[in-house]
Amino acid sequence: MSSDENRKPNYSRRFLWLALLVVVLCVGYTAGWFYLADKLEAKAKTSVAALNHDGVTAECANPVARGYPFRLGLFCDHVAFEDSQRGISVSAGGFRSVGQIYDPAHLIAELDGPASVAVPHLQPLAFDWGNLRASVRLAHPLPERVSVEGRQLRAATAAGAQLATVETFEGHMRPNGENVDLAGTFSGLSLDPVLVDGRTVPPLSGETDLTLNNGVQLIASRAQSLRGQSGVIRTLDLSTSETTGISLSGPFSVDQDGLVDAQFKVTMRDPQGLATVLGGVLPEKSREIHQGFMGLSILGSSPSLPLKIVKGKASLGFIKLGQVPPLQ
After folding, report:
1. Roughly how many angstroms between the first and final C-alpha of the chain, as a whole number?
2. Residue 221 falls inside a structural domain
3. d(CA 37, CA 73)
4. Residue 314 contacts residue 321 (beta carbons within 8 Å)
5. Domain enclosing residue 52, as ranges
6. Are 136 and 146 in contact, with CB atoms under 8 Å apart?
7. ∠ at Cα 23 (19, 24), nearest 5°?
8. DSSP E strands: which ranges in 138-283?
């Protein structure tokens, strides 16, 4: 047997080459990460600077890319946007966005409060929250999915007068062919009496699930009106407790004059419970409310009635409700 056949493998050399390869890969990966981080920071500065013209001022203070080694995202100390021509301004605290290196199409962002918002025809408002997060799955022409969720939202006037609080809320949007699906929920909505003429409204919860026909084109064109649009409401629900509430579902459309046409079904859960709630909110109408809902109770614990709107004229069953104002 030859000496070459008796020679043992040199494991030390193999380990050395393996270690060297790992070091080279780590150095290359690190260099690539910081290269992308520099590109992200430069892109952020360029994009913000491009917005600053014709009365528009945008700010992402101190943009820094972070997340090494497996994430890459942009962090700003605070963010702001103002359009002096339209009278719109928004400012908030720190902003953080991050995406996984192995899944760059999925982005997660967080925004810190407090925030101030000013829009025409309304007094400036102040918002704060315990947590506010968004998740986006990028695609073309619209994101595959957009989700926003938060908790402990507080709304007040700029002077500090409390207006409303919400314990939890979330909203979702996704394209569905040429249409767009929208859904959302909220719980623990408390309205300050100043918003409802000094009345006391119990905490509310709500849920919505609807499809906006041709929504992809509507969003892409940045349409400012729902005129000429249509859709289907699968669920539009408002609850005062787990067993008491009212829901609406059905198709709708809006003509070019803003007049609504719809074929809705309205379902009332626990009519007597609803009467008690509404009677507390409108004590001067309590007797009429209880009498009206007593008739509904004969139809069961969750009676349903058709709500028809024809060219803006609404009727609930055989009861004429009046005119729905044209939508803008």
Report:
1. 95
2. no
3. 8
4. yes
5. 9-111
6. yes
7. 115
8. 145-157, 162-176, 179-191, 204-212, 230-239, 245-254, 260-269
Round to whole Å and give the CA distance between 98 and 51.
22
Separation CA 202–CA 208 (nearest Å): 20
Distance from C-alpha of 111 to C-alpha of 90, rounded to nearest angstrom: 13
Q: Does some domain include residue 65?
A: yes
Write out the two tokens for 291.
Answer: 């009498």
Q: Amino acid letter at 255?
A: D
Whether residue 127 is contained in a domain is answered as no
Q: What type of residue is 241? A: S
Task: Count CB atoms within 10 A of the CB of residue 14.
Answer: 10
Phi first, then psi: give them for residue 15, nearest 5 degrees.
-65, -40
Domain count, the chain: 1
Q: What are phi and psi of 19, to 5 degrees?
A: -65, -40
Distance, in Å, from the CA atom of 314 to the CA atom of 103, rounded to the nearest integer, reads 49
Q: What does each of the 328 residues of the chain score in pLDDT, given as a tens digit? A: 455 555 556 667 777 888 888 888 888 889 989 999 999 999 999 999 998 988 899 999 999 999 998 899 999 999 999 999 889 999 999 999 999 888 889 999 999 999 999 998 888 999 999 999 999 999 888 899 999 999 999 999 988 889 999 999 999 999 999 999 999 999 999 999 888 888 889 999 999 999 999 999 988 888 878 899 999 999 999 999 989 999 999 999 999 999 999 999 999 999 888 888 888 888 888 888 888 787 777 777 888 989 999 999 999 877 788 899 998 7
Q: Does residue 89 form part of some domain?
A: yes
CA of 150: how far to CAs of 18, 137, 170, in Å? 47, 18, 6
The pTM for the full model equals: 0.85
CA distances from 292 to 186, 241, 287 (A): 29, 21, 9
